[in-house]
Amino acid sequence: MYLPPHDPHVDDPMRFKPLFRIHLMERKSATVECMYGHRGPHNGHIQIVKKDEFSTKCNQTDHHRMSGGRQEEFRTWLREEWGRTLEDIFHEHMQELILMKFIYTSQYDNCLTYRRIYLPPSHPDDLIRPGLFKGTYGSHGLEIVMLSFHGKHARATKITGDPNIPAGQQTVEIDLMHRIQLPDVENLRNFNELSRIVLEVREQVRQEQQQQEEGPEDGEGHSQQSPQEPQRDPAQPNMGPPTEKDREPGDRGAAAAEEQPAQSGQGQPFVLPVGVSSRNEDYPRTCRMCFYGTGLIAGHGFTSPERTPGVFILFDNDRFGFIWLELKSFSLYSRVQATFRNADAPSPQAFEEMLKNIQSLTS
Length: 363
Description:
This is F-box protein 31. The chain is of the alpha+beta class and 363 residues long. It has helices spanning 69-82, 92-106, 185-188, 191-214, 260-264, 348-360, and strands spanning 2-3, 15-16, 20-24, 30-34, 42-50, 53-58, 112-115, 131-136, 142-150, 153-158, 170-179, 268-269, 277-278, 286-287, 289-299, 303-316, 319-324, 329-335. The protein has six helices and 18 strands.
C-alpha cells in the first residue's frame, strides 16, 4: 500500500506499507502471508477474480488485534496515518472525520478487492505531464488524485476518497479554454475581487454552453468550448460560507492551452486572498498561469453533490493548486514521484474506460 505523507506535507514522499506476500513453491504451488497488523506475517489467501482484478483475505484476523483493545489499535493507527495523537488535533470536526475513517477502514481486516489502475497517457501539448498527485483536503487530510488531459479540459480524479467525495469521482475540472488573469498581489488579497473575476468567467462559460445547445449552425464565432462533455449548470451563485456539510473539492481537467508558451516561463506573484483557508502555508509564491475550473462538493455519504466554481493555479511542472470559491478553501497538489511498473494504459480508449469504471463503482 502506498500511503500519502503526513498532512499537510504534500512535497514529502509516499510511504510504503506491505499488506501481503507470496512465497512461490515447487510444482506451481504457493503460500500467501498477510502482513497486516503488528504481530508478524500470518496465513492469508489470494483469489484471482477476473482479468485485472484479485481479492485478498486474511485467515487469522486475530493477529490484527492488539492487547490494549480498540483504543490501542486506534492510537497506533493514528500515529501511523496522521503522525500525531488525538490530543494534538483540536478541531472537533476533524476528530470526528478521523474516527469515521478508522472505523471504516479497520473493519475490512485486509480482506480487499484490487482493480488495476492505468496511468494517464501523455501528449506533447499537455499543460504539464499528467499523473498522480498528493493534495490537501482540509480536515480530510491528504488524498491522491490523478490528473489527466482530455482535449480542451483537464480532470483530477480521486484515487483515494473520504466520507464526502468517494474515490473515482472527478474532484476538479479545469476549462483550458478559459484563462483567468489574476489581479496584482494587493488586489488578489481581496477575496471579493477574485470572486468577481471568477463569476464573470462562469457566466461567460454558461452563455457559450447555451449558445452551443441552441445549435451549431449559428455559432461559428463561439466554438471555443468543447461540446463533448455536458456539464451541470452550477448557476445560483451561493457564495456564503460553507455549511456543516463539510463539502469538498472535486475533479475535472483539461488539455493544453493555445496561449501557453508566451507566459509559461515567467512567474507571476501569487498570494492567497485573505479569508481563504489552507492546510499548507508553504505554498509557492509565484505561478505560471490560471484557469477557470469547477470543484465537486457534497455532504457526508456523497449526498447532494454539486460542482462549484474555482480557480486552477499552475505553479510548476510538479505542483498546482485549486481555490474552492464557495468553501473559501485552498488545496495544494504535489506530484507523486514514485515510479510504477507496467502501469501505462495500452491505449487512450483503455484509459477512458478505466476512468468510467472506477467512477461507476461509487456513483
